[in-house]
Amino acid sequence: MQELRIFSGNAHPELAQSVCNYLESPLGECEVFEFSNENIFVRIQENVRERDVFIVQPMSSPVNTSIMELLIMIDAMKRASAGRVTAVVPYYAYGRSDKKDQPRVPITGRLIANLIETAGADRMLTVDLHAGQIQGFFNIPVDELTALYMISRYFINKDLENPVVVAADEGGSKRARNVAQTLDAPLAIIEKRRTGNDEVAEVLNVIGDVEGKTAVIVDDEILTGSTLMEGARVLMDRGAIAVYAGVTHALLSGSAVEDLKASALQELVVTDTIPLPPEKRIPQIEVLSMAPMIGEAIGRIHTGRSVGELFQ
Fold first, then answer.
1. Do 279 and 161 share a structural domain?
2. Domain count within the chain
3. Helix, strand and coil percent figures for the chain, each rounded to 5
4. Catalytic, out of 158, 192, 261, 280
5. 181-196 pLDDT, tens per residue?
6. Closest by CA position to 116, among listed 144, 96, 88, 95
7. What is the b/e burial string over 148-177, where b = at least 16 CB atoms within 10 angstroms of the residue's CB?
8. Residue ranges making up the domain that contains 256
9. CB atoms within 10 A of CB 309
10. What is the pTM of this model?
11. What confidence category does residue 205 fall into, taking pLDDT thresholds of 50, 70 and 90?
12. Does 192 qualify as catalytic in the annotation?
C-alpha cells in the first residue's frame, strides 16, 4: 500500500480535519451530498488506487444518514481500487441493541457490522463501544480506543478533594473501576432499573460510600441525561460534596442541555467523538479532543505498529 489518505463524510468534518492536522496530512477531496429524493451521492475527487484509505464518520445525528454515507463512501473507495479501507467510526450507533433482551427484537448492532463489512471495509477503528461484545460482531479487525485515560487525566489535574468514582450502572462498573485505579480513588455504583423503551431509568440505590467525597460519575454516553442527573441528585442526598461526570459520547438530545444547567452536576466532561453545536456548549460542559489519539492510531495502523501500546 502506498500513501495514507483520510476522507470525511458530513457527520463530523471538523474532527477529520483535526486528525489530518495532527498527522500533517491533507484531508482527501470528495463530495458527499443528498439529492432532493434523499438519495446520497458520493464522488471521490482524487486518485485512491492502492492507497491506504481512512474514512472518518461517526454515526451521529442524523444517524441513519451518517450510516448510509459511510457505507456508500466505503463502496466508492473499493470500486476506485483503494488498497485498504478503514472505517473510522468514533461513535458506533445502535450499540445498545447488542442482544435479544426482549422477545422478537433485532440485534441491530450486529446488522450494522454486517453492513460495514458488506460495503467493503477491511478494518474498523472506533472509540468506547457501548458493549465490548460488539467487536465480536465483525469478521474484520476492530481497534477500540478509549477516552477514559484522557478523562482521568483531566480530573487528576483538577486535584479534586477526596474523590470517589461512581459507575453510572452495574454494567459500567469495569469502565469505572479503571478510572478509579487511575485516580487512586474508591469505587461506588449507582443501581438503577430500566423499564420499557422510554429512555428513562429509575435510580434505586447507591452501592458504596460517597459521604464527604467528590463524586465522579463515569459512563460511555449521555443521551437525554435524565438518569445521570437523577444519579447526581441522589449522590448529593447521600452526602457527596460535589458531583462531576466524565462521558465519552455526548448525544445530549431533547432538553438535556437545559436540564443540565439546573442539575446538581458541577461539570460534565465529554469528548468530540460527536459534534457539539455552539448552542450546546454551555459553561458546565468541557469538551476534550479525541483527534490526537485517533490520529496516532491511524498512523500506527498505516505503519503496522501496535495500537494497544497507546494504553500501556
1. yes
2. 2
3. 35, 30, 35
4. 192
5. 999 999 999 987 766 6
6. 88
7. bebbbebbeeeebeebbbbbbbeebbebbe
8. 148-288
9. 9
10. 0.94
11. confident
12. yes
